[in-house]
Amino acid sequence: xxxxxxxxxxxxxxxxxxxxxxxxxxxxxxxxxxxxxxxxxxxxxxxxxxxxxxxxxxxxxxxxxxxxxxxxxxxxxxxxxxxxxxxxxxxxxxxxxxxxxxxxxxxxxxxxxxxxxxxxxxxxxxxxxxxxxxxxxxxxxxxxxxxxxxxxxxxxxxxxxxxxxxxxxxxxxxxxxxxxxxxxxxxxxxxxxxxxxxxxxxxxxxxxxxxxxxxxxxxxxxxxxxxxxxxxxxxxxxxxxxxxxxxxxxxxxxxxxxxxxxxxxxxxxxxxxxxxxxxxxxxx
Amino acid sequence: xxxxxxxxxxxxxxxxxxxxxxxxxxxxxxxxxxxxxxxxxxxxxxxxxxxxxxxxxxxxxxxxxxxxxxxxxxxxxxxxxxxxxxxxxxxxxxxxxxxxxxxxxxxxxxxxxxxxxxxxxxxxxxxxxxxxxxxxxxxxxxxxxxxxxxxxxxxxxxxxxxxxxxxxxxxxxxxxxxxxxxxxxxxxxxxxxxxxxxxxxxxxxxxxxxxxxxxxxxxxxxxxxxxxxxxxxxxxxxxxxxxxxxxxxxxxxxxxxxxxxxxxxxxxxxxxxxxxxxxxxxxx
Amino acid sequence: xxxxxxxxxxxxxxxxxxxxxxxxxxxxxxxxxxxxxxxxxxxxxxxxxxxxxxxxxxxxxxxxxxxxxxxxxxxxxxxxxxxxxxxxxxxxxxxxxxxxxxxxxxxxxxxxxxxxxxxxxxxxxxxxxxxxxxxxxxxxxxxxxxxxxxxxxxxxxxxxxxxxxxxxxxxxxxxxxxxxxxxxxxxxxxxxxxxxxxxxxxxxxxxxxxxxxxxxxxxxxxxxxxxxxxxxxxxxxxxxxxxxxxxxxxxxxxxxxxxxxxxxxxxxxxxxxxxxxxxxxxxx
Amino acid sequence: xxxxxxxxxxxxxxxxxxxxxxxxxxxxxxxxxxxxxxxxxxxxxxxxxxxxxxxxxxxxxxxxxxxxxxxxxxxxxxxxxxxxxxxxxxxxxxxxxxxxxxxxxxxxxxxxxxxxxxxxxxxxxxxxxxxxxxxxxxxxxxxxxxxxxxxxxxxxxxxxxxxxxxxxxxxxxxxxxxxxxxxxxxxxxxxxxxxxxxxxxxxxxxxxxxxxxxxxxxxxxxxxxxxxxxxxxxxxxxxxxxxxxxxxxxxxxxxxxxxxxxxxxxxxxxxxxxxxxxxxxxxx
Lengths: 284, 284, 284, 284
Fold this sequence. Notes:
Chain A is α/β, with parallel strands linked by helices. Chain A has helices at residues 17-27, 60-75, 99-109, 128-133, 148-161, 178-183, 204-211, 246-269, and strands at 5-12, 31-40, 45-53, 78-83, 89-94, 116-122, 138-140, 166-169, 188-192, 215-222, 232-239, 273-276, 279-282.
């Protein structure tokens, strides 16, 4: 893999940003590999994802620090940096369903993604054997209304100890408190088993069956305090008919959930996703 | 085209319906061309669509009357009959947008569907020239809160005079009263420009943009008293991204609306759709 | 799960087949759960899939034998029978790629399909550890031009010993001889990594890249003597762009291969697929 | 609509192109609205589409001339320029089928595209009345083996007289000679009714039926001397089953052909398509 720096920038639009960013990289001897930008004209916010290979003699970390300073100070942009050598640490939170769990772990193990799964958190024992079979730490903490606050503290300690950089709710059937989200210190991604904003909340396949829709969907989103209201990263649908009862919807939905969640995780790990307001920019 | 009878049946399930229906047709010398059935196990309702060619010496109308009696009396089923020679009369209701309007009329004119458009109703003058260019009667009745009741009576008289058997709301931007629906005497189909139940009501593309969804949709449904709540016949979606503003969604949506509405109309005209409760069975 | 018999019939069309089949079941006290038929009008061949629950007092095996005799003798139809209690034995043939391998095994293990994987055959050692981790027998037989004939004999012995009822080539990178196909004694299914008939033979993703197509595909088919020419069971495509090099096509293609192969296997295991001539009828 | 210049550039990659292009625009007081680039790493060719609004005081034509000189001379790039005020002239070539014909004309008339249809060429009389109903010139020239050479000369004279900038073969059932293509002086786009490279040549839907594929497709491409081998701009597919005979494929295919051709034309008219070798870059 090529040695490269990826910068994600966003901030108020102003003339010449593209020229200044490209100019900075060129002057420092870098070679732009990809660049993509977007202007939200309603909000007048400029977004850019730029990836470049620096001079072989340049240290990735110092060059990206220098770029960050430049972007902050001269362009007034917020910046997020990733290096080609980064290998982000992921934790999974699961309950009983195992389809997304296996799918994500097998993708990481096959080398499809440049990431590392560091452990599995669950409110059930069901996936302990499978997790340990994959050589992964498994922390089982049952959640009740009474213990929830305390459990979330333990979960956060565990996640922080391991240096987790992305938490994926792979069909974790508990709502996370805003306290958890404020303290976890990294993005949290969820897969919801409907085409949001349709069928929020519990049992979306049963709701879909009841309404008689002709397509079912799945939605991957970042988790925010408002249940099922976070910024959407990826969605897809599958065709159904009157022949499919709730159980068939659940079965068909599993494939959709795996695909949609894995696409969202891929884009996140490729540093293609910027969220702002309650929406995302997902660069190609 | 083959000379045939299509029967749509539904009612409480009971043993032997399939055998009895097939037996009746066979005993009367008919040859089954297609047969499809469905059992809603939650409601215990049986549905069947069966198409057969009767003996050349048999009159289509009398054979289908005889079948209807048999199905009512011996199977306790509700029956809807269509003959291969039927050519249902369609009326369009439109406002200003013309994409579904042209699409439907051109399909009928090309012989794609065995139907006849008998006129266009509108609350605006915009599509008069185009309608008359197609040789179609055009009735313009502006609607205000005050005139609505009276206008709907005129619309119903006009539709009944023409013997209309299907009313298609091809982006008609007025809500129909339950009075209208109770008296129109034939099914009314609508195209809603979202993936229902998401984004009911006005300006669904703006709502979709605001929420940041990654797919937009369209839904064709029979119209009932509850706005956007009628039985869904067909839905589809198209992929969008952060690059698409509300105007691009509207443009992309037009193609989706045409496709989804035309598929629903095709299935209806092929006598493949049965609605019950608030859902549909759409046979292949 | 309900206790039921599934019959797949096909043969020359004749009047009254539907009535006679439904009549036989009804007279024997059975209740039709699903029935679907198809008439190939060009070839005048009739196809039917019918599933019924017999009287509780009836033995599944004797009732299905009786039905088979009836269908052979009175309808002149070929018949294939499956019972709800059947749990077909599957063997996988693999080389080095493991995505379809894991996908299929995890589906069986999760109970998604009513089947049993009885072993893995490979021309490489790569998937031994994973297979044995799943508790599966693994037979490694390297194939060279010289040994091919002998190896195929050993493979067939192994498959027959285990009573295998479906062989799935889950990205097995060797061509099977017609000798193998004639003696294996059960259907063999393959996943080809292109939208057939485009890009037959080796390296289809590279061919697709070279041609500049905008969609890549995958095709699941039964294996016949003519490479990549067997009856197609299922196909699907994914959108690509100029941005995707051959490696990205391979990565994107893996998800497609898993989905398409798993859908084909599901339909096969649900006894929904009939192949005739070089085509398939796949009932819903 | 905003006053803007769109430049499409391509040529051998070299360091700093992005910076130099953005720098040139910024120095001339322009504001980049969109910019997208692509590097074909196998061929080492760089592609860019950049759109900017120049200073209000700048003339669009002179600024774009100046940019072209800069790109040629300092970057060694080939350049194609379009102005926001351009309204390209389109001619349609048709035979008997009218679905793409109506679809394209109605899109232009509705203002969906910034273009002008200047006439219709045909080897049949069938679409004369419809064309003239739209107020379009119609040139009917029957083609036989003997007259083909002479007819093509007349067609080219007619197209050149009208200043046509894009020829669209909207189901024109004649092969164009390389002589025609060399002299027509503008791009020629075709819709082929299959998923190329499958089913080249005549009667692709019949070929698809014969092969038993589970999806049918359509392909829009620029026309080159090699029939059905030109650079692909857009493709899509639709699901079919064993129930669909050749006639149903043709009917289903019409919708696909309209959609795929219209998407390709849209991208072409938005100056998003660059063709090189036998492939295209289609910017978003």
